[in-house]
């Protein structure tokens, strides 16, 4: 299956970053996953629009879609943090603007009792 270069690079970077936080044993049970994508504020934004973007009042509606980010994150973290993508049973993803573009990932194992 074809994987575009940008997508491959994103996954490779995530895998490297995640390997620094690798658990001693891969997570095996159900997982809650939160992904926050912070995209760069556009240079064309006015001061007012820039302030609204930083405050979270203006959100990116440009590509890539949020589900494409999730696919990349799940692919990159498989066999680094958890065993299989199917373990993600709770998912929240959002896109924001920021002066410091980044992707924040929070992984919480879900206790089964």
Q: Roughly how many Å is the radius of gyration?
A: 16 Å
Question: How many angstroms does the end-to-end distance come to?
Answer: 39 Å
Which structural class should the secondary elements be placed in?
alpha+beta
Order of helices and strands: HEHHEE
Helix coverage percent: 25-40%
Total strand segments: 3
Task: Give the mean pLDDT.
Answer: 94
In short:
By secondary structure, this protein is α+β, with helices and mostly antiparallel strands. The protein has 3 helices and 3 strands; from the N terminus they run H-E-H-H-E-E.
Question: Would you mind describing this structure in some detail?
Answer:
The protein has 113 residues and is of the alpha+beta class. It has one domain. It contains three helices and three strands; from the N terminus they run αβααββ. Strands 2-1-3 form a three-stranded mixed sheet, covered by helices on one side. Helix 1 crosses helix 3.
């Amino acid at each position: 299956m074809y994987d575009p270069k940008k997508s491959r690079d994103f996954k490779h970077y995530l895998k490297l970053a995640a390997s620094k936080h690798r658990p001693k044993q891969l997570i095996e049970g159900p997982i809650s996953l939160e992904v926050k994508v912070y995209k760069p504020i556009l240079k064309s934004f006015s001061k007012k629009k820039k302030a609204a973007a930083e405050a979270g009042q203006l959100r990116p509606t440009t590509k890539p879609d949020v589900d494409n980010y999730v696919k990349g994150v799940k692919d990159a973290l498989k066999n680094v943090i958890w065993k299989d993508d199917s373990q993600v049973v709770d998912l929240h993803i959002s896109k924001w603007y920021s002066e410091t573009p980044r992707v924040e990932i929070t992984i919480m194992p879900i206790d089964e009792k």
